[in-house]
Specification:
This protein has 313 residues and is α+β, with helices and mostly antiparallel strands. The strands form three sheets. A five-stranded antiparallel β-sheet has the order 7-11-10-9-8. The chain has ten helices and eleven strands. 24% of the residues are buried. The protein starts with a strand and ends with a helix. Helix 4 runs antiparallel to helix 5. The longest helix has 29 residues. It is 49% helix and 16% strand.
């Protein structure tokens, strides 16, 4: 079996990484961080192969996984993705409260005038397809079937509600109470992120010269209502401005990174469920892993809300 690896994060001189030697130029291709700093790297066995492209000479090849070794980097190397802006924990802000004198212009293509915001919005919108792939894999695990079959079922469900109902029905059937509770926390997190993604995917964007970096947003419904009322309602513009919000770059970056975080959380949860069938150490792994999954960012908060609701009811 072969696995594709492509490193996006930068390399820092003095840090330790698992590498393979490029078959083209002979340089070290840094693949994964070695958190043990070369002191106790895990032993790799088996006949798996790694598909790797060299960032220096573009040579692509398959390498035995056993050929990876822990090496201390001797130089700094830029990563494969652009630098990211610092995240902000704030939500979108009402335009009138944050920029009372700014006036937005909306229309097709204005998002292009804010390329940094546009790039992050594109990450948010396109990442949801990967979330749905993880959900299809999760459905396959719950149903005990192969992934293509579950993916076909999942793809046939056109609405998010139908997809969630299918996952929930399968989970209720096969999961014990505490695993179902953990599943429910993941689905609650999914719903929260999906709303933020959908707002951006289906909203309208505008710009203002008074706000040179951030993007102005309004819901499609509110924009339609304004265009219908502007010719006969003298208060239409005032009402419309009250419906407008500003997405700062840091807010957009937070949403994008939280979706990436959730993608990995779904993968970890699926691996935890997969271990149910492992008779050789699976129970021990699951006992340890359960508490780790429960303490994950945002999943822990979702679990707390679910448990509080149970106590209240």
């Amino acid at each position: 079996m072969s696995y594709g690896l492509y490193r996006r994060d930068p390399i820092f001189a003095g840090s330790w990484y698992f590498t393979v030697t490029c078959g083209g130029c002979g340089r070290q291709i840094h693949l994964l961080d070695d958190v043990t700093n070369g002191q106790n790297p895990p032993k790799i066995s088996g006949d798996g192969e790694i598909s790797v492209g060299c960032p220096y000479c573009a040579h692509e090849a398959l390498y035995p996984a056993t050929s990876m070794k822990s090496v201390q980097a001797s130089e700094n190397v830029d990563g494969g993705r652009p630098p990211r802006v610092p995240i902000s924990n704030s939500s979108r802000k009402p335009l009138l409260k944050s920029h009372s004198k700014a006036h937005a212009t909306f229309g097709v293509g204005y998002v292009e005038d804010r390329p940094r915001a546009a790039a992050i919005i594109a990450r948010i919108i396109t990442a949801w397809a990967d979330i749905e792939i993880q959900c299809a894999r999760l459905l396959a695990e719950l149903m005990g079937t192969n992934i293509p079959a579950a993916a076909a079922v999942f793809a046939s469900l056109k609405s998010s509600r139908a997809q969630s109902d299918a996952l929930d029905a399968a989970a209720k059937t096969v999961l014990e109470d505490r695993d179902y509770e953990l599943f429910a926390a993941h689905m609650a997190r999914r719903a929260s992120l999906e709303k933020e993604r959908n707002d951006l995917a289906h909203g309208c964007f505008g710009v203002s010269v008074a706000i040179p970096n951030d993007i102005i947003w309004v819901s499609q419904v509110d924009f339609i209502a304004f265009t219908a009322a502007v010719d006969h309602d003298p208060l239409a513009m005032s009402t419309f401005r009250q419906k407008q919000f500003v997405y700062e770059l840091g807010t957009l970056e937070r949403i994008a990174q939280e979706i990436e975080e959730f993608y990995n959380q779904l993968g970890s949860f699926r691996g935890y469920l997969f271990a149910r069938r492992d008779q050789f150490g699976g129970a021990q792994f699951r006992a340890q892993r359960y508490h780790q999954l429960c303490s994950q960012p945002h999943i822990q908060q979702a679990l707390d809300r679910i448990r509080t609701a149970k106590k209240t009811s």
